[in-house]
Design goal:
Length: 362
């Protein structure tokens, strides 16, 4: 199967979801149970998605004229994907705000890929992009299933996924990575004894899994900056702002200062240097290393992050192999920078010094 691969990414990492639940009042505990059941179901779907052809081609002439085609479905708190179609490409806004937010933010993300990188939809062939809103009851997460995007309504701990542009760009980018790198980036089978749920068969692991996560964060951050017209100094480099209830924190992650709990959430364990890296690290923690390398390179070059640093990252990440390491990412981004801008150019130097600062290379 050409794109047989299951991305394992929820917007809210398992560790954060567990922490929120452990802090929750007894009255909220039943919702955690609902979340685990729903998550288990989504993980099952991920396996199913991998056995089907992803993104059926559009029929006839229409396919060649459209750069992408969005469809938003309403699950009405159910869990049987995809749900009832409520808004199709070009359709007018509907009464449901969540459906409109997802339609709009998916469009902004797809426009970013088209206008900045010349990419036509997730597969670069103008594919349909399916999203389902109102998944389950009080489901506090969003996810790329391997075939489509799914959004829950959330609860009193975490909510607001359809309105979070960077989260939608993050999830959609897991789909882009799936299509860019045959065999996926960092996707590994999970041994039965290590499965969080019995249905869980694949997960993102190791440095390559962290690179997969990081690329989604990098694009999520760039799309947010692009839409707001922010340069690298104006941007706050937070991902998933306003999702968490104020008592838990302000954002899911920071590219500017990974693991700074004053900027993110109360037990954020992300880090930004290989000094803190250990084998077997959670990919949402170790992704701070390549995230921060991107941030530093963008700061060195100034201006808009997507113009040079983003272009280098996009071209380089497409060249990574499924088991790529941080050193591979450093090597390929430096190579692309030197090919595009010249050996010893300020772009080449900026990328090199960024990877040195996070101690991936010396
Ligand atoms: Zn992710």
């Amino acid at each position: 199967m050409k794109h047989a691969y299951r991305c394992a990414c929820f917007a809210v990492p398992a560790k954060l979801a567990r922490k929120l639940a452990s802090r929750a009042q007894a009255s909220e505990q039943h919702q955690l149970h609902g979340h685990i059941e729903a998550a288990a179901r989504l993980r099952t779907l991920r396996g199913v998605a991998s056995t089907r052809a992803t993104h059926p081609a559009l029929p006839g002439a229409q396919a060649s004229e459209l750069n992408y085609q969005r469809v938003v479905f309403d699950l009405a708190q159910g869990v049987d994907l995809p749900g009832h179609p409520v808004r199709d490409e070009g359709g007018k806004p509907v009464p449901d705000a969540a459906a409109n937010h997802v339609y709009d933010n998916t469009g902004i993300t797809l426009d970013f890929y088209l206008k900045v990188f010349g990419r036509r939809s997730i597969d670069n062939c103008g594919s349909r992009v399916e999203s389902s809103v109102h998944f389950g009851q009080n489901f506090g997460n969003a996810m790329w299933t391997g075939k489509s995007m799914v959004y829950g309504d959330g609860d009193q701990n975490v909510s607001g996924f359809p309105a979070a542009l960077d989260i939608i760009a993050h999830e959609l980018t897991h789909g882009v990575t799936q299509h860019m790198i045959k065999g996926g980036l960092g996707v590994v089978p999970v041994a039965p004894k290590d499965r969080e749920f019995k249905e869980q068969t694949h997960d993102l692991r190791g440095q390559s899994g962290a690179l997969n996560e990081s690329f989604s964060d990098v694009v999520g951050s760039m799309v947010k900056q692009w839409h707001a017209g922010q340069d690298v100094t104006k941007a706050n480099w937070l991902l998933g702002e306003h999702l968490l209830a104020a008592r838990h924190g302000r954002a899911i992650r920071s590219l500017k200062d990974p693991g700074n709990r004053a900027l993110t959430w109360y037990e954020d364990e992300q880090y930004k240097s290989m000094d803190d890296y250990a084998d077997g690290a959670d990919v949402h923690d170790s992704s701070g290393v390549p995230n921060h390398a991107f941030y530093l390179a963008a700061q060195h070059l100034g201006g808009f992050s997507w113009e040079k640093t983003g272009a280098i990252w996009y071209e380089a990440f497409a060249k990574l192999t499924p088991a790529a390491t941080f050193k591979d990412a450093a090597r390929v981004t430096r190579q692309v920078a030197s090919q595009r801008f010249g050996v010893g150019s300020k772009e080449h130097k900026a990328v090199t010094s960024a990877w040195q600062a996070v101690k991936v290379i010396t």
